[in-house]
Amino acid sequence: MSTAELPKRHYLNANYNVWSWLLTTDHKRIAILYMISLTFFFFVGGVAAILFRLELMTPQGDLVISETYNRLFTLHGVVMVFFFLIPSIPAVLGNFLLPMMIGARDLAFPKLNLLSWYLFMAGGLLAIAAIIGGGVDTGWTFYTPYSTTYANSQVMAMALGIFVAGFSSILTGLNFIVTTHTMRAPGMTWFRMPLFVWGQYATSIIFVLGTPVLAITLALIALERGLGIGIFDPRLGGDPLLFQHLFWFYSHPAVYIMVLPTMAVISEIVPCFARKRIFGYRFVAFSSVAIAVLSFLVWGHHMFVSGQSLYAGLVFSFFSMLVAVPSAIKVFNWTATLYKGSISLDTPMLYALGFIGLFTIGGLTGVFLATTAIDVHVHDTYFIVAHFHYIMVGGAVMGYLGGIHFWWPKMTGRMYPEMWGRVSAVIIFIGFNLTFFPQFILGYLGMPRRYHVYAEEFQVLNVMSSAGASILGFGYLIPLVYLLWSLKYGRIAGPNPWGAKGLEWMTPSPPPTFNFDETPIVTEEAYAYPPLSDEPLPDDFLSDVPVADEQREPLRS
Amino acid sequence: MADNSLRFTSHHIVPVKTYTLVFIALLVLLALTVLAARIEHGVLNLVVGLSIAVTKAALIVLYFMHLRYNSFVVRMVAMAGVLWLAILITITMADYLTRS
Amino acid sequence: MSTANTHVAHHYDDAEQQFDAARLGMWIFLATEVMFFGGMFTGYTTCRFMYPAAFAEGSSHMQLLAGTLNTAVLLLSSLTMALAVRSVQVNRPAVAVRLLMVTLVLGFVFLGIKGYEYATKFAEHHVPGAAFSLGEAHNPAVNPQHVELFFAFYFLLTGFHALHMLIGVTIVAIVAVQTWRGQFSSAYFTPLEITGLYWHFVDIVWVFLFPLLYLIH
Ligand code: HEM
Ligand SMILES: [Cu+2]
């Protein structure tokens, strides 16, 4: 049971002065730095959303003019995608947990890790400068030739900001991959690693191989704007579709950067609160890698109506259906894990269940959209907006919050107030659905995205959506308050308040600077939750669990 | 401590002779590619030019960069770089080649 | 205490592990570089596919001799770099220092020739932009704007390559000093090894740029 005292010395109180934070190479402190910065950006993006949802209460443009509206939704998109959701789980939870979960003292390159944070902040400052300097009106997608030739806004500064922040992603991915290969504790074979680590690993593949293409694409935009080199400019013989290819080569995989780490979190929470081993460990593990690879083959589904060749569209459509398969595998495995588990509905589990449901809706509508005939009808309508918000907000943000609640006691040594946690999780779930479900209908009825005025008949659904947005916004504020409150007043958590499995729970909360007093030796599978005594398990249930450790082949990296 | 598969050849020492031979081969290939380009043979020019470039790159990667003596993981990383580049170019070209 | 141990950071178990991590990290970084240049190569491929004649025209304005010479210079610098690493592996740091100096000089020779080529291009108005002009003698069937596109890729690709060369000579200079100070031996030479990897990579990029820019028919 939990001890009533925090450990005397831990990573948070090892040093106190400001420099010990700003120059820290401790992966746990860097995670905290990221958490603070990302929370800031989340609320910046959120304020913009609240403003344009207010504007959309009425069909006329009475709060902002169209130019301002364009800047608001671009700000929202850029900040939420590049400065919140892409780094969110890897940079905060991944940084904090990955070394601990594999029994390492730190990431392979601690200084590089600190550099990542500084790059992220430098990119973030450039983005803020672009916003203060008048904002950007291209949408987060920066489509050419508008962004290169016509847009009269801070495209350069914003592109540069994202460029710089991109290198932070690259270095984080590099660090994670090397750490997973070289820093595992004795006995920590690949198939004993928690699925969280598999998820971060798969995400890192995308970071490392996708982000550089985004970087060069943004550099080309800047060069085109500055020097008019003409590569994307049809007047000079360039091709705007080339931009779309390069952009989506990164940005479709990027949506999996957002959701793979979330799936990784869910794979930790579900077994813990169902008190069962994860069903089909290897399927879940490999599906992460499969998603990472397949995600690079589908980007053209964003270009069905852009003038890309019909045949290419067909191929992209086919691959898009294929990428849904490994995602579905995960959903089935989580559901099977829940089956006959002894389930407790603590806050992290509420978020996890919310994720599974909303992600399924988002993923299925994705399959609709990947069907060319449907996409021609709903492309650039609110249907798209609803689709990706179901995955990115209903899925990824819920997973992030679930993860934050699950590991909060580990990070801070204290429990958050459970009652408030549950209440806000439910509020967020309701607010979310009220905001975005009407948008499916709006889009299906033909309301285009990215306009600040709309036809009268869409008003009722828009008012519902705006009402939902205010509930959602309120729901996000509650955790901010009680989590801060818990830092001082929360109950002492002890090393393992959830009775969870995994190396991170075997060290004190908060952990010491080097995570473990001595390097742990791993002797069992991940999620070795005791089988329920009264309930015989189905025969095939343990099929992927080896009979005895000695019979395992040693697994090579 | 991680498993040992990464490290069986950390410090492989390549003989000077190998390096020199590789360098000579690279120079020969350079001469070859310049000469081949003088002859007009349509698309084949591109094919020959790229094949020679790939051969040169392979020599550099395998010997100067020691990929030949490196672990499976490092080889996978190198392969991944090449494979992903191929994905990017091939699929993009799939669009350009079939536009009407 | 051996030299190796003094270099092991606290979070590693031993020098071997640290070396493996650094090398793997460098290879992953190079994979990201492949994709960074890859974006430009993709653009090049699509435009060359659309305007083959214009690209051939543009290529005919390249200085083949300078390009060939530069390729040879870089290949030689890769050899000296590889030999420098080897010299440290067999504990002959003094030789390594000299080889690194040669590498460095070759790097500057490359940049010098490149600079000379750029200067010629400026003089001939072959730089994309308002002042661009193809001059009198060119294939009348090609649209000069499309040739301009070729030159855009020429400057883009060689420009980013030259930037990598600049970074390369800087770090070669740093490791040369470190070698000279006796910081490396067969037991520990990680920075030298990964600098070498980077240098060879930049060489490889050029190996592709050469036929793609100088040798089009
Ligand atoms: C798994 C996480 C996913 C995320 C985070 C996600 C996110 C997004 C985003 C952000 C967009 C809109 C981009 C824009 O135009 O601004 C989008 C559009 C699209 N998504 Fe998804 N998506 C996911 C999964 C899927 C899946 C599984 C499929 C197909 C099987 C899919 C198919 C599509 C299609 C076809 C579009 C383009 C619609 C259009 O613009 O006409 N998505 N998605
Ligand atoms: Cu997509």
Protein architecture, described:
- The complex is a heterotrimer of chains A (557), B (100) and C (217).
- Chain A has helices spanning 18-22, 27-55, 66-101, 110-132, 146-150, 155-182, 195-227, 240-274, 281-294, 310-338, 347-370, 372-378, 382-412, 418-445, 459-489.
- By secondary structure, chain A is an all-alpha fold.
- Chain A has one domain: Up-down Bundle (Cytochrome C Oxidase, Chain A).
- Mean pLDDT of chain A is 92; it is low at 533-557.
- Chain B has 100 residues and is an all-alpha fold.
- Chain B has three helices and no strands.
- Chain B has helices at 16-38, 43-64, 72-98.
- Chain C is an all-alpha fold and 217 residues long.
- Chain C has seven helices and no strands.
- Chain C has helices at 3-6, 15-50, 52-60, 64-89, 93-123, 144-180, 190-214.
- The longest helix of chain C is centred in the C-terminal third of the chain and has 37 residues, at 144-180.
- The interface between B and C is large, with 51 and 51 residues.
- The complex binds protoporphyrin IX containing FE (HEM) and copper (II) ion.
The total number of structural domains of chain A is: 1
Helix content of chain C: over 70%
Low-confidence stretches of chain C: 1-5
Number of strands of chain C: 0
Helix share bin of chain A: 55-70%
- Which CATH top level class of chain A fits? Mainly Alpha
Name the CATH superfamily assignment of chain A.
Cytochrome c oxidase-like, subunit I domain
How many distinct helices of chain C?
Answer: 7
Q: Tell me about the biggest sheet of chain A?
A: none
**Strand-pairing-aware structural class of chain A:** mainly alpha
In CATH terms, what is the fold-level topology of chain A?
Answer: Cytochrome C Oxidase, Chain A
The whole-number mean of residue pLDDT values of chain A reads 92
